Amino acid sequence: MNTMLRKSVLGIAGLAVAGGLAAGPLNHHETAPVTGLSEAAVMQADKPDTAKLIPHGVQGAQSKIDLNDEQTANAKAIIAATKKAGLPERAAVVSIATSLQESKLENLGHLGDANDHDSLGLFQQRPSSGWGTPEQITDPEYSTLAFLKGLKQVDGWQDMPLTEAAQTVQVSAYPDAYAQWEQQAADIVAQHWNS
Question: CA dihedral in degrees (139, 142, 148, 154; nearest 10)?
Answer without folding.
Answer: -110
